[in-house]
Structure formats: structure tokens, C-alpha cells
Amino acid sequence: MSSGDPIRNVVLVHGGFVDGAGWQAVYELLKADGYQVSIVQNPTLSLAGDAAATRQILDRQDGPTVLVGHSYGGAVISEAGTHDKVAALVYIAAFAPDKGESVNTLIADPPPGAPVPPILPPVDGFLFLDRDKFHDSFAGDLPANRAAFLADSQVPWGLDALGGAVTEPAWRAKPSWYLVATDDKMIPPPAQRAMSERAGSVVAEVPGSHAIYESRPDAVASLIKQAATGR
């Protein structure tokens, strides 16, 4: 792919505890620049199910596509990104598991002093974040009323999603870009840097919380456009 032949299709994949509506500002910025944008609504019951949901949307694309994942969505795009329409991967403060790794294995050994995400003990096989700590941990740079809405509209995150292991990581075969959120309290920035380095990603660092896709949609859209032009 040359810089004169940019990709026009973008598929956005959300992470755990939230749904695809959080991508709206990024969606609108990309649409305004002429991109065809689709959003995957992951059930977040299992990694296999979410990869299947993503492949379903990829099947509908009419050409090369940039596949974007936030947080747990990075595991999803690592699994589903082997799809033949995926030309580039973009990780937004996301997990980038290697073969046999899951989100669960990646969070098992946090860096010393890193904040511990306020994930409550599982109930009936599902996880939630402590709603009273949601704003500080997940969305520290969003307005309090928006963070409260996200906390109260959480999507239950299945243990089979957390524990689902990647089979053939797409980033080993396809070019990737990575946005490090430097104020992230869910995935420590040192872990983000380590995963992006391992993947050989083109890296941008931006001050922002784990919800950087909402708080800094300009920076997110900018990196996606870099991936679309291959720069």
C-alpha cells in the first residue's frame, strides 16, 4: 500500500464494560474526512464470540480496512485482524496479546505501584467495575455526568472474554499503530508501551484517561488516519 492509495474503510471495536456508542465523536471526525466507518457491538461474552462479531462486520467492507480496538477490543482485533480485508491495526490504550495470551494473563502481573482497576468479584460469570470508582479509574478526564452515565450503563464483561486466548495474533503479520494514554489507570502506560514495542507498532503518546477515545477523539482519529495512509 502506498501513501497515494489510502484506506477508506474503518471498523471500530469497543472494549469491556462499555458499548460502541462511545466511538461517536471519533466516528463523526472520520466520516467528515470521507471515511466509511462501521462500529462493532461486541456482546463481550467471550473472545471467540466478539471476534466472530467483528469478522461479520469485516465481511461487509468493500475493500482494505483499518481495524481499531480500544482496551479489551485490542484482544478482539488481535484475534479477528487476520481477516483478509484488514490492512492495518490500531490499538487505542489496548491490550495486544500474543499467541496463547489473554487479557487475564496480561493483567496478572501489574507493574509495581500501578493502580489496580476496581473490578468487582465476578457474579454469575460476569464482571463490573465499582460504579463509585468508575470516574477516577476509567474516565478521569470526562465530565462527571458522562462518567456517571457510563458507570450506570455498564455492559457485563464475561469471564470467557477476559480469559479468551488469542490463537494467531494479527499484529505479527500486519502493520500496527498504538496510542498510549499516559494518564491511564486501567492499563498502566508502561504495559501499553511494552505491548506496543513488542508488536512493532508506530506509537503516539497522548495525555488522557482510559476513555481517551471519548476525551481526545481528535488524537484517536488522527492516528487512525495515519494508519489509513500507511505513514
Automatic annotation (TrEMBL):
Domain AB hydrolase-1, chain residue ranges per copy: 10-222
Superkingdom of the source species: Bacteria
Keyword Hydrolase among record annotations: yes
GO molecular function: hydrolase activity
This protein's UniProt keywords: Hydrolase
Entries under Pfam families matching the protein: Abhydrolase_6
PANTHER family in the record: AB HYDROLASE-1 DOMAIN-CONTAINING PROTEIN-RELATED, ESTERASE_LIPASE_THIOESTERASE DOMAIN-CONTAINING PROTEIN
Protein name as annotated: Alpha/beta hydrolase
